[in-house]
Amino acid sequence: MMQNWRVWLCCAIFAFSASGVANSRDLNSHDINSRDINSHDINSHDINSLDILEESALSVSPQEGIALLDQFGLGNNDLKPEQQAKVWFLYGQLYEKARELDKAIASYDKGIALVKYLPITDVLIDSHLERSFALYLQSNDPAVYCADRKQALIYARQHNNSELLAKTLTQNAFCYSEPETVYQGIALLDEAMLIIDKSENLNVHRKAMIYNATGSLYRSVGLHQRGYENFEKAYQTWQSINDIEDMFNMQHNMVSQAIKLADWDKARKSIEAQFALANMVDETKDLLFFAHLNAGRIALRTQNYQQAIFHLENAVSLEHTTKEKYFISSNYLYLALAYFKSGDAKKAAEAARTFRLNKRFAANMKAMFLKADAIIALDENKPVIAASKLFEVIDIERKVNQSVIDNKVVSNSLEHNSKIADFENELLANKLAINELNWASVKDKERINELKMSLFIVILVVLASIVLFLLFSRKSLKVRAQTDFLTGLANRGHTFQIGQKIVEKAWKKHQPVAVIIFDIDNFKSINDQYGHHIGDLAIDATAKRAKSWLKKHDLVGRIGGEEFLIILDNTNKEEAFNIADRLRNGIASQSFQFDDETVEFTVSLGVAVLSDSHTALTTLVKQADDALYQAKFSGRNKVYLAECA
Question: Is 562 a catalytic residue?
Answer without folding.
Answer: yes
